[in-house]
Every structure is written in C-alpha cells, then in structure tokens.
Amino acid sequence: MDIRLENFTKRFGPTTVIEDLNLTIQDGEMLALLGPSGCGKSTTLFAICGIHRMDGGRLYFGEQAVTDTSSQNRKVGVVFQSYALYPHMTVAENIGFPLRIRGDESASRRRAVEEMAELVQISPYLKRRPAELSGGQQQRVALARALIRRPGVLLLDEPLANLDAKLRLEMRAEIRRIQRETGITAVLVTHDQVEAMSMSDRIAIMEEGKIVQIAEPMEMYNKPTSDFVAGFLGNPPISFLDGSIEQGAFVHKESGLRIPSNGAPDQPNARVGIRPEHVQANAELPIEGEITFFEAHGRETLYELKLKGGGNLRSIQASIPDKQIGDHVSWGIDPGSVLLFSEDGARL
Amino acid sequence: MSQQGTISRNFNPWPMMILLGVLTGPLAFMYVFLFVDTVTNTDAGSLVPSEFTLEHWGFLIEDVEGRPNIWAVTLNTVIFACSHTAVVLSISMTAGYALSRLNVPFRAFFLAGVMILHAFPTVTLLIAIFLVLQFLGLYNTLGGVILVKAALLLPFGIWIMKGFYDTVPWEIEMAGMQDGASRFTVWRLLVLPQVMPAVFALGLFAFLDGWSEYILPQVLAPGQEVQVLSVYLANLIADDNNFNMNLFKSVGVFYVLPVLVLFVFFQKRLLSMYGGGTKG
Predict the structure, then answer these.
(1) Chain B residues 2-41 within an 8 A CB cutoff of chain A
(2) Cα B117 to Cα B113, B133, B138, distances in angstroms
(3) ipTM > 0.90 for the complex
(4) Alpha-carbon distance A258 to A248, whole Å?
(5) pLDDT tens digit string along A245-269?
(6) Distance (Å, whole) CA B242 – CA B244
(7) Out of B174, B179, B193, whose CB is closest to A97?
(8) Which residues are CB-contacts of A231 (< 8 A; sequence separation ≥ 6)?
(9) Which residues contact residue B209 at a Cβ distance below 8 angstroms, ignoring those fewer than 6 apart?
(10) Do B181 and A72 touch (CB under 8 A)?
(11) What are A167-180's pLDDT values in tens digits?
(12) pTM, whole model, 2 decimals?
C-alpha cells in the first residue's frame, strides 16, 4: 500500500510547522524522514498515523482517503521511541493487545502471537513483563505489537535512539530484515544519517518543515541538491570552503587553492564541499597544510587539516605513523569528487 | 554491627531512641489502659488492674438503655464508610483523568477550583449544608450525609488521582489508540492499571476518613435509625445523668479496632499515595 500526503499543513497555535508538504511513499518501500530536531519529521509521522490532526491537505493509503479517519481505524502499526509497552501486561499480552481489542478468539490470538514472536525472535520471553527485558528485546516486542494486525503501514519514530551502540547496529539490521520479510510499507523517522542511509530504500531529508531532497541513499550522498543535504549526510561530515568561481576554477578565498569547476559558471561567491575520504595523502590535486587535530578510529584515522593561509579540511585515511599535531603535510584532494554550491546553497 | 557484615551507621541512634521513647511513652500508656479498663474494674488512678470481667462488653449482646442496637449502628457506619469510598473513588478516578488528559473546557478553572476547595474548612459550610439537605428532604438520611461527606473529600481525591495520571506516559495512550482501542478502553485497560496503587490508597484513605467522621453525621443525621458509631460514642459521654466510663472505653475500643486492623495490613499501600502523587 502506498502512502500519499498532498499539501499537508500543520500548525501548533500560531506557528505553522509544515506548509503544503507533498510526499509519496511507494508500496513496500522503507522511507527515512531525516532531519535535525524540530524540522517537522515527527509531526509528519504523527499526521500519517492520526495522532495529530492535519490542518490542511489530504492523506491517502492506496486509493483510500484517510484524512478524516481516526487513528483507531487507520490500521497503522507504530513503534514509539520509548516503545510504549504496557508495563502491567506480559510480553504475550502486549503483542496480542491489538487482536484482543479487535475481538479475536484467544486460541487464534495465541497462535498469532507465537508466530509474531518467532518473526521478531522473542519466543522465550513471552511470559515476562517489559521491565524484565533488555532495551533490544523491548524494541522487538514493540515491533511485534505494531505488526500483529498485519497493517499496511509501519511507522517507526526514532526506534533506535534508546539503544546502546552495539544493539543499535544489531536492531538496524533486524528492523530491515523484518520489514523486508513482511513487505510492509514503512516510514522511519530519525535524526541519525547513518541509520537513515543504512536502513532505508529512500531518504527524504527535511529542513524547517520542507522536504529538501528525496532520493536513494547513495544518490543523495553523491549528488546532494544543496549544501544542507551535503552537510547532513556523511560521518565524519563534509568540510566547506568559501570562495568564488573564476575562469573555470573554484578559488578559495583564504588559501588561494584552485579546484577545476567542471563547467560551473563563474560567480563571485561560491562554496566547495570536500568529503573527508577525498582528502588523501596521495590524491591528485596537491594541497599544503598543518595537522591541527587527529582522532584514531582504529582501522583509519580522522585528521583535521588547516590549509596554508586558512580554511579547514577533514581527511579520513589509513593511519600514517608518526604524524603529530602541528606537522606540515603535502597531501591532495580528488578534484573529480568535490561538490560545488552557489551562494544560496544550491548545487552547481 | 559492622562485624556482622551490616553497614555501620554514621550516627549514634540512642539519643533519638530515648527521645522518641520519652515522647511516645505516655501515649502508649494511655492506649494500654484504655484496653485494660475495658476488661477490669480498676479504680481511677490505680496502676494495678483489679479483677478480670467482660461486663463492659455487654453492649455487644444487649442494647444499652436508651441507645440504638450496636450492630445496627455498626452496619450504618460500614454502609456510610463504604458508600463514601465508592462515590469518592468513582468520581476521582474519572474526574482526575479528565483533568489530567482530556481537553475539557474550563480546565484551568476546574483545577484552581479543586485546589481552593481542597483547602476549604468544612465547618464553615455546615449550616448551609444543613439547610440544603433540609430543603431536599435528605436531612437525617444516610444518603444525604454520604453525599456531603464524599463531596467534601472529592477535591483531595481528584487532585491525588490527577497527580498519578500525570505520571503515566502519553505514548502508552497513543500506542493504545494505534492498536485500535477507543479512548475509554485505553483508560480502562491501559491507564487505570498504572494508577492502581493510587486507587487502592485513596480507597483506603476514604474508608478510614468515612469511618472516623463525626461532625457531619452528628449534625446532618443524628437520628437513632441512621446513627453511626462516632455519634453513638459521643452520645454515651454526653449523657450527664448516668455515664459509664468503662462502657465508653469499651465502645471506643470496638470503634477503633477495624481501623487498626486495616492500618496494620495496608499501611504500606496507604503511604504510597504520598509517594507517587508528588506531581499534583
């Protein structure tokens, strides 16, 4: 079932949070709503499940208009950030609750619960209460409860925010597996770009109530439409240098570094974005600088580089022995991979 | 102490123990002799109990002259305390939820009103209530005094329940509605179980409060048919002509016994009311 939001508008009191937002989520796809906090991504999610009333616009599940349908009747599975498990019920009762409300017989309910527990791999814990489970197990229970009615739509609100780093990695893959196995249309709200990139088919990146770009993760990473998108995706983040484009080359204001502009028109103010993996010791276009900071990540090291004359770049590469803070280095950048932006942030 | 593996205290408990002992000693002494006097004929001022007798407990079998039957009075008291509890609980449970969660009109007004009524002294309303009950024909009925008593405890009950409802996460209700449950079902199956300790404590509190209420039944329902234990007890001692101290004490012990039993069994739950309702 696909989801279509048309001209969605939401106000809280006098403030308009979202205005005329259009979004289509395709059948069976996992779409990530990504953005900094306060960008309206959770508001959009709550409008889809019916917790927030829409102040304008229309919502369709498939061909069916559900704008005025109550949350009870939308048949949407939701996993909340806090999981919102019912603390006085056992795991089995939690998972079976939607069926109990629907009035299913207890025998068929039990069968369905066992089946669902199998899918999310919590079968041994059915008799426990939520408080006796670890965060990851609670997460699985919440998923099972959201999925047991076989809804057409699954909504995940920051599902991994409350987990520790190792569990997060594990649940990322788990949620994706379960979503693929059930073929459900899913919307994931997150502020973590790694989560969005690794879990979803497409990412919709939001800024101040608007969708800035919607694309597949790698496409968005390689071809961001604006410097906001480029800055949001990627960890460690991209570095920007300000300057101008003159005679077919970007010229950095402070260091005078020249990078070929690949046909972008000349303009007095422009930015270049260079991802850390494109600054390497032996890359094509030479740069001179001084190491101001470095972080060992194990397999590789993140260096912060101050260009001669000014401007900072990040570089991530295999660790180079004996490099200290303050050392001068002559490294290079890959001129084919840099991203050029105009003064207003649009990519050139 | 520390040799036995327990944590050694960082203060000496003895001065406190002695101070508390000195302060509670007279009270304990009073309670002991309250009981001793009901089963003996000890002279006033004497510390040594005389013979053992059950004559002062005769009121349980035979009606005291000019007084209603003790069991009828006890039944009235039980009805009074239980109905009071039921009214307070059912209204506090629902009104507290509405004030905590629903978008009711004049919510701020109701909240402020509840707070003010909570602090309002009952006695000042007594004459007005008397007139109202008289007008409605509820004077000298148990129903009338139950309504009044419950109404006066409601601000407290609603406030306590609201405080507990406030601590239940919103997400639980959202999740319940996504799971297809109506608002009422969400309240009944998901929210109410979270505040059960408060419901229990409030119920116990309301029962004890009703059991010990004196001034309202005395003024609003003094008739023999609807008398409760507190009024019965007060009438015993108000009779100047032939008052019997030992009988008075026996009825007093009889009256306080259920309270003690309840308190011994449920004191933990009663205290939890003040633990969770702090947000209120």
Answers:
(1) none
(2) 6, 20, 23
(3) no
(4) 10
(5) 988 889 998 888 889 888 888 889 9
(6) 7
(7) B179
(8) A237, A238, A240, A273
(9) B84, B153
(10) yes
(11) 888 889 989 999 99
(12) 0.82
